[in-house]
């Protein structure tokens, strides 16, 4: 799934480049779009589950700039018993900007729990 997300002024530094800390917000927005196509965060919560971030990382390849519309492709890289690792490939006008990875762990009642069905079957 590809999300199209604009770079807004509040995300940029004085040089009109997106601040490094903001990339994770774009990854999260893209993940919520990906999750929405599978029933959404509300469905996950109705099933008594939630997701917490266990690990995250970002490789920067080119700057994202004010006014860019970033195409962020979300794809599962690994699906485990209690966790899912997502890869986020960010492009601007076809140029690779960044690649992020985030591992989410499913929790119920404060403890790791099996992934719900809507997050299985993507590996």
Model description:
It is built from two helices and six strands. With 123 residues, the chain is α+β, with helices and mostly antiparallel strands. Strands 1, 2, 3, 4, 5 and 6 form a six-stranded antiparallel β-sheet that branches. 23% of the residues are buried.
**Oligomeric composition of the shown chains:** single chain
**Unreliable segments of 5+ consecutive residues:** none
Structural class: alpha+beta
State the end-to-end CA separation.
15 Å
Count of β-strands: 6
- Quick one: overall form? elongated
Strand content: 35-45%
The gist of it:
The protein is an alpha+beta fold and 123 residues long. Helix content is 17%, strand content 43%.
């Amino acid at each position: 799934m590809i999300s199209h997300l604009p770079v807004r002024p509040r995300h940029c530094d004085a040089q009109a480049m997106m601040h490094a800390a903001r990339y994770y917000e774009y990854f999260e927005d893209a993940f919520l779009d990906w999750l929405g196509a599978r029933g959404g965060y509300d469905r996950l919560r109705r099933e008594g589950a939630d997701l917490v971030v266990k690990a995250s990382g970002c490789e920067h390849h080119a700057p994202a700039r004010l006014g860019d519309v970033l195409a962020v492709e979300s794809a599962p890289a690994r699906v485990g018993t209690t966790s899912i690792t997502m890869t986020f490939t960010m492009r601007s006008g076809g140029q690779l900007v960044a690649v992020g990875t985030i591992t989410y762990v499913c929790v119920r009642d404060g403890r790791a729990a099996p992934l719900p069905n809507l997050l299985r079957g993507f590996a």
